[in-house]
Write a structure and sequence with these properties.
This protein has a two-stranded antiparallel sheet with strand order 1-2. The longest helix has about 30 residues, at about 80-110. The chain is mainly alpha-helical. It has helices at about 5-35, 40-45, 55-65, 80-110, 115-125, 135-140, 150-155, 160-170, 175-185, 190-200, 200-215, 220-225, 235-240, 250-270, 270-280, and strands at about 65, 75. Helix 1 crosses helix 14 (about 250-270) and helix 13 (about 235-240) runs antiparallel to helix 14. It is globular and about 75 Å long. A hairpin with a 5-residue loop joins strand 1 and strand 2. It has a single domain, classed as MetI-like fold (Orthogonal Bundle), CATH 1.10.3720.10.
């Protein structure tokens, strides 16, 4: 029997509150900075922790672009958000689709060197994009895919992690389901569509959240394959705003950072139940 100790509960809650404060304070600081003017941020040290009255103007300037009070030109963030959204969705859907099919083939089909093929896929975990970035860029440039959604997403679609996770789940599916489907006359793709996909729904949801955030936060690869500002994702837009000159519109930078934070946060919040269930639920 677990003994109740009020002081232990108090300490636990205190640790949780401190943890939330440490995580939330930078977000609050970013939000406050986006409601002030650049002059207020640069002139007051330390910056005021109270919200200002320029939030609407700053967010409108960040979204739609325009000229600031000191004559700087701000590019609109809205097209960058759209580019990031399309790229993240293509990467997520592409990774999940390819990983599902490759795991299905490895588990349920017999072909020569099947285990070798799986371990070759698994070994690519040790070869992230940063390691193979030069030959990948050369291939993408040779195919004429620079400044395109294909160039932004196709090299990032293959995922050994997702393939491994789906393979492990497929191995846990009872063989009786396979035999029952075969007796009912279901072919391989029908078995995959009608049985495996519904059973994998929570795993797919969890993987979608992870891959969406992965695709949304990409910086190094888009920095190489995009030279046209029309194809900049929002992460590059933030870097562009921090120009390194003597004057930076920090209020617009902070508003852009908040806008870049909203879509991944919404995906996590809306799919939180499925995400947790897909990672920890063992009863399929």
């Amino acid at each position: 029997m677990v003994e109740k100790r009020p002081w232990l509960d108090a300490v636990s809650h205190l640790v949780l509150v401190l943890g939330v404060a440490v995580v939330a304070f930078p977000i609050y600081l970013t939000l406050v900075a986006s409601t002030q003017t650049a002059e207020q941020i640069n002139q007051s040290v330390p910056m005021s922790l109270w919200p200002g009255d320029h939030g609407w103007d700053t967010w409108k300037l960040a979204l739609l672009g325009g000229r600031t009070s000191v004559g700087s030109t701000i590019a609109p963030v809205l097209p960058m958000l759209l580019t990031s959204l399309i790229s993240a969705l293509l990467i997520s859907v592409g990774k999940i689709s390819i990983s599902l099919l490759s795991a299905f083939a490895i588990v349920y089909f017999r072909f020569p060197f099947k285990q070798l093929v799986f371990w070759m896929i698994f070994v690519t975990l040790m070869l992230p994009v940063e390691v193979r970035i030069s030959p990948t860029y050369e291939v993408v440039a040779g195919l004429g895919l620079l400044n395109s959604y294909a160039g932004l997403t196709v090299p990032l679609i293959a995922s050994a992690t997702a393939t491994f996770l789906f393979r492990q789940f497929f191995l846990s599916v009872p063989d009786e389901l396979v035999e029952a489907a075969r007796m009912d006359g279901a072919g391989p793709m029908r078995f995959f569509r009608d049985i495996l996909l519904p059973l994998s729904a929570t795993n797919i949801a969890a993987m979608f959240v992870i891959q969406f955030i992965y695709g949304w936060n990409q910086y190094l690869w888009p920095l190489l394959v995009t030279t046209n500002e029309d194809m900049y994702p929002v992460v590059l837009g933030i870097k562009r705003l921090i120009s390194g000159e003597s004057w930076t519109e920090w209020n617009v930078v902070m508003a852009t950072a908040m806008l870049a934070m909203l879509p991944p946060a919404l995906v996590v919040i809306l799919m939180q139940k499925w995400f947790v269930k897909g990672l920890v639920d063992t009863e399929k």
